[in-house]
């Protein structure tokens, strides 16, 4: 019986740059995803593309966030994760620049294909980066790194999308694409200060043999299965954040208030929540923190459901909910790093599977919340979100309580043994 990471030398851990440097390397991912979610629909609708077509384009472009994990074993095979980070970020930059150069109602097909490739490349970049981060980050600093990771992700997404939308009024799209592409590549710069990653033990021809065999061994461990149970559950999906911008009328909130709250307000409160969550994740059991944050978001949604239906309730509820969501995001990252451990040859693939699991929970809970709104209005949406989080959280605490007691700071990490 050997641990999946046993083939690598634990050695003396190399010096790690400050947590904000390590976390800041996720900026390219935030830029691309933020562009896709926020700026792309803005640019397309301004160009005269109908909203239903925009929705189809956006869904296609975002699809690699769900199925991209199928290609994550590549990031654990052949080259080092440093090489993959620069390679995938470069591909994403070139594709997004080319897409903006041709973006128009008459070239929607080629632009969509290029943007889909950019999204896939940046998903693979995230896998390579998180695998590398898991390798170099000691347990006692995983929470801090996770907090700054989410600050960089959310901040880059919000500020990058705002910059693209504002500059699109004055700058040609092809010029804007070159600037965005250059910023994506520059965003990889923090990795220059990362300790060198270990080279994979797998050759490319082993991707469907030895590498996948090790992934299968790793995901069957009790700790990894516990992670899947947590991440697939609705408790910390915090999916209502995807629908709050459409609830303004239900709370009689002016359009300007909705824009400010769901834009800059959400970015600030989510970032602060992520930093606080990262701090807590280095001091309390991360599994319990993850569930606790999700249940706190559920309580917030429950309070909004029965509070007075006015703008003040909307502002306070949305900001508090997103602040707690930031805690959940940081706990998710820190727990994922804890489970895969520091010397795991298939860390990128495992972390990609965890991301796919939590994205799946977000998708089905966004749909469920929408059904709640369809049949019972704003209160139905909020109660659906709240009850799913609270019931699932309580059940998981009862069923998995013993597995969630580990206090951060002790190595070796959670990765369990598996046969080879």
What do you see in this structure?
This protein has 420 residues and is mainly alpha-helical. The protein has two domains: 18-200, Growth Hormone, Chain: A; 204-410, Up-down Bundle (Growth Hormone, Chain: A), CATH 1.20.1250.20. The chain is 69% helix and 0% strand. It has 14 helices and no strands. The chain is globular and about 55 Å long.
In CATH, what is the homologous superfamily of the largest domain? MFS general substrate transporter like domains
Provide the number of structural domains.
Answer: 2
Annotated CATH topology of the largest domain: Growth Hormone, Chain: A
> What is the N-to-C order of secondary-structure elements (H for helix, E for strand)?
HHHHHHHHHHHHHH
The share of residues in extended strands comes to under 5%
CATH architecture of the largest domain: Up-down Bundle
Distance between the termini: 7 Å
Q: What's the pLDDT, averaged over the residues?
A: 83
Total strands = 0
Main sheet properties:
none
CATH class of the largest domain: Mainly Alpha
- Unreliable segments (pLDDT under 50, ≥5 consecutive)? 1-12, 411-420
Oligomer: single chain
**Rounded to an integer, what's the Rg over CA atoms?**
21 Å
- Helicity range of the residues? 55-70%
Q: Total helix count?
A: 14
Summing up helix and strand content along with how strands pair, one would put the structural category as mainly alpha
Shape: globular
């Amino acid at each position: 019986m050997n641990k999946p990471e046993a083939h690598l030398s634990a050695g003396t851990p190399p010096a790690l740059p400050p947590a904000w440097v390590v976390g800041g390397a996720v900026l390219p991912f935030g830029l691309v995803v933020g562009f896709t979610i926020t700026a792309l629909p803005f640019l397309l609708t301004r160009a005269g593309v109908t909203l239903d077509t925009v929705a189809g384009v956006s869904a296609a472009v975002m699809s690699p966030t769900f199925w991209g994990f199928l290609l994550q074993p590549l990031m654990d095979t052949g080259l080092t994760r440093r090489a993959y980070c620069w390679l995938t970020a470069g591909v994403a930059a070139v594709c997004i620049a080319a897409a903006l150069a041709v973006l128009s109602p008459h070239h929607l097909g080629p632009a969509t294909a290029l943007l889909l490739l950019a999204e896939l490349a940046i998903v693979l970049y995230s896998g390579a980066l998180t695998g590398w981060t898991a390798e170099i980050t000691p347990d006692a600093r995983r929470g801090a790194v996770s907090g700054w990771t989410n600050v960089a992700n959310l901040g880059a997404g919000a500020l990058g999308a705002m910059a693209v939308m504002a500059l699109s009024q004055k700058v040609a799209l092809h010029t804007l694409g070159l600037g965005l592409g250059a910023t994506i590549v520059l965003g990889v710069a923090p990795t220059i200060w990362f300790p060198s990653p270990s080279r994979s033990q797998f050759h490319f021809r082993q991707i469907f043999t030895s590498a996948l065999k090790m992934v299968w061994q790793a995901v069957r461990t009790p700790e990894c299965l516990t992670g899947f149970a947590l991440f697939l559950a609705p408790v910390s999906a915090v999916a209502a954040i995807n629908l709050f911008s459409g609830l303004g009328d239900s709370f009689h909130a002016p359009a300007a208030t909705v824009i400010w709250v769901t834009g800059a307000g959400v970015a600030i409160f989510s970032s602060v929540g992520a930093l606080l969550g990262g701090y807590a994740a280095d001091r309390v059991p991360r599994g319990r923190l993850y569930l606790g944050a999700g249940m706190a978001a559920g309580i917030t949604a429950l309070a909004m459901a029965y509070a007075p239906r006015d703008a003040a309730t909307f502002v306070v509820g949305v900001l508090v909910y997103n602040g707690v969501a930031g805690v959940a995001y940081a706990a998710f990252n820190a727990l994922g790093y804890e489970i895969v451990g520091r010397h795991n040859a298939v860390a990128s693939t495992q972390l990609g599977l965890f991301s796919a699991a939590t994205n799946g929970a977000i998708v089905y809970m966004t749909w469920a919340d929408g059904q709640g709104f369809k049949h019972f209005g704003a209160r139905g949406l909020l109660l659906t979100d709240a009850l799913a989080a609270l019931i699932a959280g309580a059940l998981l605490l009862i069923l998995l309580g013993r597995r969630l007691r580990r206090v951060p700071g002790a190595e070796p990490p959670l990765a369990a043994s598996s046969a080879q």
